[in-house]
Amino acid sequence: MSLYVLAKEKLTGFVEALQPNFRVVGPVRTQHGYAFDDITDAAQLELIYPTTILPPKKYFLPQRETLFKFHTDSDEQGSRRMKMEPVFQDVQPTVIFGVHTCDMNGILLYDRMFETGYQDEHYIARREQTYVIGVECLSPCDDASFCKDMGTLTAPPVYDLHITEVDGLYLVDTGSEKGEQLLLKYAEVKMATTEDIRQLGQSLSSKWPRFRHRLKMGKDQLPSLLTINYGANTWDELGAKCLACGSCTSVCPTCFCFDVQDEVDISMEDGERFRQWDSCQLYEFALVAGGHNFRDSKASRIRHRFMRKAKYNQQVHGLIGCTGCGRCERACLAHIAIPTTLNALYEETQIDAGR
Amino acid sequence: MVEVFEDAAVSEAAYVEEVMPSIYLPTVAKIIKVRTETEMEKVFTVRLPGGRPLGHAPGQFVMVSLPGIGEAPISVMSSPSRTHETFELCIRRVGNLTNSLHKLLPGDDIGIRGPFARGFPMDVFKKKDVIVAAGGLGLAPARSFIDEILDNRDDYGRLIVLYGARNPSEILFRDELRKWRMRDDIDLLVTVDRPDESWVGHIGVITRLFPRVEINPAKAMAVTIGPPIMYRFVTVELLGKGLSPDQIWMSFERRMKCGVGKCGHCQVNYRYSCQEGPSWTYAEALAFEEAL
Ligand SMILES: Cc1cc2nc3c(=O)[nH]c(=O)nc-3n(C[C@H](O)[C@H](O)[C@H](O)COP(=O)(O)OP(=O)(O)OC[C@H]3O[C@@H](n4cnc5c(N)ncnc54)[C@H](O)[C@@H]3O)c2cc1C
Ligand code: SF4
Ligand code: SF4
Ligand code: FES
After folding, report:
1. Element (H, E) at A211
2. CA–CA separation, A185 and B249 (whole Å)
3. Which of A173, A149, A292 has its CA nearest to residue A222?
């Protein structure tokens, strides 16, 4: 849309102006690394930071979310009665600052997922009330990331505002009408000049050499690579290492599976049904009545995860299911890494093909 | 708390106006009748508010809820042709939710979402000889399909129903089976794995019934519903009769939490069973590595 200039020292002013009217969140330094959290003091906000522990998905799909509250009791005849009222938890005007380009690609997949087919009103209600302020990645933020390979090193069209630092200035691109209004209302900005635009272009194109490739193949080759390797021994090898802890899926910006459960209070009459993040790496995930489990072994479950990341999401949503953020590699106690595995599969396949 | 409106389209509208909708919110329906089928299964007759029709296809399911206990997918047992103000569910008690459901009585409220999934496309079966192979509880969803054919009898060719139960006491819908046996437009064969003294019928697993049926594969279509293990053997029999994989429909059991293609539990490779299933042709199933 349009490009504006925000002087670097005016960023705090922007945040402070938003705070009375919005929940303002962004990457902040914690004991264990950076995490998206509430910005209580505008000076806390840092726009240059290594990958956060969790992606911003928690603001769109909370770790645990109430879907509805209920009340059950008996009428005069002793018949069971129920009342239910939907809950739209954490629906509030929220501004998320400093979302990396990989994480914006995660949001893109979330939008596809929750807004196509049956509409997930809970997701949509929160999404509509949220402003995404992206930040352009000009240098690699983490050793484990492979965003360049996954094509997530450019901002997808999910942002309301997108900030690129150029020569001590912030150039702010507006991605939506509501983003532009937010900027003009709460920040002190100028229109960008032709020179600013030229500099932005230069800065964006010169960033590429700074990022390395970790994959030996292009992302478009992944679906067929995985198709060929459905029966590979790799899955058994990974299955033997995997602890089935589910950390990889909790930290993943594109994982969205959930479990649904009920909870009642002590009176046994009032309670809520909630959903919470679930993981296809856990044994119970595909267990059905009668005790049959469709993904019995760790090997079959880890294969399912890789298939979802690099093939199935592409088939269903037209988007690759991995943003290359590298979080799963960092979180995994068994040191299972997506690039290492994909490269090994690729090399074996090359050998097979050459035989 | 929002009042729950028992009746009439007007109050439904008011309800929608008062709160935002949620795909996860069940409709409060009422149990009209409960019938004990066997030691494990009960049949529940359910009425939606205002007697509004469910609008399902054979093979579809609803998510059944008891707030505080949980929710599970249950196939609609009654056929669309016999589902007007009420519909039927046959529920086997196997765990928390289903045990609690078995304690419900007529007049009690029950939560319903759906119908979901794809069901069996009836048009595909029209003018064809139809073979139904049902194992155990699979006869419940199969009944929706069978009754739909019986009520539109002229649209279809022969109807052959093969049913296998583990033992005589687990046989479902005895009255119905008796009626079917009397009709000359339906061929019914029932077998049990483990007979008792009273049993005079066929003995053995369901595949043992296949040698007894003659089918013209050129004009046949099959539907098979039962425990996961059954599919492998039944498809072998059907293929042996000359049917091709796209003439065989099956219904897949998967864990389901949302019913609307979001929670991921029911995935069969890249497809969501709650949306595009649970009925698939064997040809489709062959294309999924995880199907059978
Ligand atoms: C499409 C479909 C149609 C079905 N139709 C019928 C039917 O007509 N009648 C009938 O009695 N049953 C039917 N079922 C099976 C029924 O959903 C399960 O028996 C029920 O979920 C068990 O719930 P529970 O809380 O009583 O058991 P639990 O206490 O949860 O546990 C018992 C067992 O059920 C498994 N389980 C838990 N949740 C699910 C779930 N959502 N889906 C499958 N298994 C689960 C557990 O892993 C465990 O092995 C159907 C299932 C599917 C997928
Ligand atoms: S699979 Fe791993 S690298 Fe890919 S998006 Fe998920 S957490 Fe990031
Ligand atoms: S984090 Fe590692 S060990 Fe844990 S489930 Fe994922 S792959 Fe397995
Ligand atoms: S039941 Fe949730 S995706 Fe199918």
Report:
1. none
2. 60
3. A149
Compute the distance between CA of residue A204 and CA of residue A165 in angstroms, rounded to an integer: 10
Ligand 3, pocket-test mutation among A53, A236, A241, A247, most atoms within 8 A of CB: A247
> Is-contact B101 B89, C-beta < 8 A?
no
Does ligand 2 have an atom closer than 6 angstroms to the CB of A309? yes
CB contact under 8 A, B255 and A286: yes
For A76, the closest chain B residue by CA position comes to B107
Asked if B159 and B130 count as a contact pair (C-beta separation under 8 A), the reply is yes
Tell me whether residues B22 and A67 touch, CB distance under 8 A: yes
Q: Residue A299: CA atoms inside 13 Å, Cβ hemisphere, count?
A: 9
Q: What is the pLDDT of residues B48-89, one digit of tens each?
A: 999 999 999 999 999 999 999 999 999 999 999 998 899 999
Planar angle of CA A129, A131, A134, nearest 5 degrees: 155
- Of A236, A248, A298, A304, the residue with max ligand 3 atoms within 8 A of its CB, to mutate for a pocket test, comes to A248
Cα B110 to Cα A82: distance, rounded to the nearest angstrom:
8
Rounded to whole angstroms, the Cα distance separating B56 from B204 reads: 34
Distance A242 CA to ligand 3 centre (A): 5
| Residue B223 to residue B160: CA distance in whole angstroms | 10
Q: Which residue of B has its CA nearest to A282?
A: B265
Interface ipTM = 0.91
Place of tokens 């729950």: B4
Atom from ligand 4 closest to the CA of residue B73: 1
Which residue, B218, B156, B165, is CA-closest to B187?
A: B156
pLDDT in the model for residue A64: 97
| Vertex B241: Cα angle to B186 and B280 (nearest 5) | 80
Whether A85 sits inside 8 A of B69 (CB atoms) is: no
pLDDT for res B3: 35
Give the number of whichever ligand sits closest to the CA of residue A298.
3
Mark yes or no for CB contact B270/A261 under 8 Å: no
Burial, A168: exposed, middle or buried (Cβ in 10 Å; 0-12, 13-18, 19+)? Answer: exposed
